[in-house]
Automatic annotation (TrEMBL), chain A:
Residue ranges crossing the lipid bilayer per the database entry: 12-34, 78-99, 111-134, 146-165, 186-211, 246-265
Bilayer topology term: Multi-pass membrane protein
GO CC terms, sorted: plasma membrane
Single Gene Ontology BP annotation: transmembrane transport
InterPro entries membership: MetI-like (IPR000515), MetI-like_sf (IPR035906)
Protein name per the record: Carbohydrate ABC transporter permease
SUPFAM superfamilies: MetI-like
Keywords: Cell membrane, Membrane, Plasmid, Transmembrane, Transmembrane helix, Transport
Family: Belongs to the binding-protein-dependent transport system permease family.
The UniProt record lists the keyword Lipid biosynthesis: no
Major site of localization recorded for this protein: membrane
CDD domains, per database record: TM_PBP2
Pfam families given in the database record: BPD_transp_1 (PF00528)
TrEMBL record, chain B:
CDD domains: TM_PBP2 (cd06261)
Family: Belongs to the binding-protein-dependent transport system permease family.
InterPro entries: ABC_transporter_permease (IPR051393), MetI-like (IPR000515), MetI-like_sf (IPR035906)
Listed name of the protein: Sugar ABC transporter permease
Membrane topology of this protein: Multi-pass membrane protein
Organism (species): Paracoccus liaowanqingii
Lineage: Bacteria, Pseudomonadati, Pseudomonadota, Alphaproteobacteria, Rhodobacterales
Localization, UniProt: Cell membrane
Amino acid sequence: MSLARRSLARSIAAHAVLITYTVIALFPVFVIVVNSVKSRRAIFADPLAWPTAETFDPVGYQTVLRQGDFLLYFQNSMIVTVASLFFVLLFGAMAAFALSEYRFRGNSLMGLYLALGIMIPIRLGTVVILQMMVASGLVNTLTALVLVYTAQGLPLAVFILSEFMRGVSDDLKNAGRIDGLSEYAIFFRLVLPLVRPAMATVAVFTMIPIWNDLWFPLILAPSEATKTITLGSQVFIGQFVTNWNAVLAALSLAILPVLVMYLIFSRQLIRGITAGAVK
Amino acid sequence: MAGRRAVRWHIGVFLAPAVLVYTAIMIVPLLGTLNLSLFARGEEGRVFVGLANFATLFGDPRWSGAFWNALGNNAWFFLIHMLVQNPVGVALAALLSSPRLRMAAFYRTAIFIPTILSFVIVGFVWKLILSPIWGIAPGMLDGIGLRSLFAPWLGREEYALTTLALISVWQFVGIPMMLIYAALLSIPDEVIEAAEIDGITGWSQFRKIKLPLILPAIGIISILTFVGNFNAFDLLYVSQGALAGPDFSTDILGTFLYRTFFGFQLQLGDPHMGAAIATAMFGIILLGVCVYLFGIQRRLRRYQF
């Protein structure tokens, strides 16, 4: 068998496996979105069919948009996620730089202290967190959520980023020092751009749990004005359990924003990963 | 002597924001919780009882049955992730990273999509799909002539936990895939070229060259899976409720903690027993992380390129 033919067969096999898995991954999303625009009868009669002119019926969306306040929920989720992400990346990278760049007393102890949080579910402290937020008047504010998510995201960010920062060449940093750059300039102008791929990775892994969290919005910010989209759709699904059109439409609307955000973000992520690897 | 080196203020400036936020919002509340576990409700306010709550949790038949059940279920949940999620993730990453593969970006994005969905969506979607009422799953099995295999998987004690673990695997397989993919891409071309010149290609190239190089990444994924699984709560809560039905067959430490801490239909919340469970979970996770750090990571050579 020639080498070319073998590699063709191999590439067909690879595509077959990947397509199969892609179908498995996307199937539930497909089922929900397709059925959300069908009439109730069609949802049950033929759940796997595309909507046709006869079966098309946007009544679910009408119900959801009349009842729910999805735009406000979406905005709340967006604010919380972006703000937390910003603080996690900035503070995390700063701490990671301090830990990986300088030798000082208590260095590895400090690293261990910060890494502890990777395995501590911040939820275990919920009762005390709630007491603190009540005491400081932060209950039912988005600030409370941003604080909690920043604390939650920092350990993993510090851990991953300091691994990457150890890989940044010392010669480069020392050349910067000889040229009279301050430590801050070395961090912001030399090191940060070089660890961008790692930042993108951290950003994706930090963003997802924040966006999807149900627990803390439910406890710390359940008011109508501060509901996140996850909480909003959960409450909505709970109320309309028998109205299948509305439930499917609500699910689709909850999937859509995070899907769009991910599609925008994933280019960044993939560019980051590949740029980091090719260099 | 030229005098001591100047105080390096910048180290403090770099560290301070992270350490302050982390300590105030995470460590202090956690210590507060551990502290709660040493008390119990008394006649007038709370009384110090030392480790009595733990003795109750591990030994008292009213509590220990539920605890060991939750722990066993949790171990099974983790085992399925290790046996299914991580090998599948590595395999997908290996396929994706093969050079000249077209549409790699599309596959990568598509397979990662379930990971970005919230538990609320995932739990509800799979409940709908697997429900005998809607009949998507039975209908599809009918289509390939296997209708007899269908069972209400989420409603049967013997299948429910495994089904939920597989749903969780479906959701999170993108994470090992992405991490391994990045690790595979960071293997320098020279190494691969050298292997190819020596005639090592395909499967044996993966096994002999790439696998040893990505072992540290696999180690990190394993410990992240462990920590994630022993903290799991949302998926089980969203799909099976706080009672982790049917008949507690899907009860894991997270749901057990929730019920104890906040109470549910049949009992009042008990913050002190809840704190004791939280502390036990903390201990289990700590043990796993120590095994990883001192038993496994030490043996993995770090390759520097």
